[in-house]
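Title: Prediction job returns without error message
Component: structure pipeline
Severity: low
Priority: P3
Assignee: unassigned

Description:
Job completed but the reporter wants confirmation the result is attached to the right record. Sequence as submitted:
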Amino acid sequence: MTGTAEQMKGRAGRLARLMPSGPSTAARTPFVLLVVLLLAGGLISLLLLNSALNEGSFRLSKLKRETTELTDEQQALQRDVDNYSEPDALERRARELGMVPGGSPAFLDPDGKVRGVPERATAQPSPAAPPEPEASAAGSASTSGSVPPSPSPSPATPSTAPAAPAPTTPTPTSSGR
């Protein structure tokens, strides 16, 4: 047994010579601090990167929401434009403004000759015009024996509505020039 104890002492002695105990702990301290600082710096940079990505994600979702709202508003406005530009709506608004449909147009040729027969625009009753409430009130008043109110002149009568002048410029043609 003494042989094994001496062998252990010999081994321990050799290991002790390879790894000195005193000065090695002082050399390990800066390395450990460097590793800890690198890990802490990495974690902090990951935290900052993550918060920057989250901020960008919130901004992206806000912009997508605004885009959706603006798209909805644009579609509603386009629907309004389409409703206002329907032929029936245009005719109704034109009649409300006192405009009347034009007759047959006449055109001037480049040499000054008039092509077509110019006609004065006259007001025609609108086929889609609803009956006025004054007319129904006048009808009920005449049955009760009272004096009916005098009819008010229609804004579409030729005497009060200015006639649209015949166009004096020729209609553009596609001559390729």
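Comment from assignee: result matches the submitted record. Helices lie at 2-18, 22-84, 87-96, 133-143.
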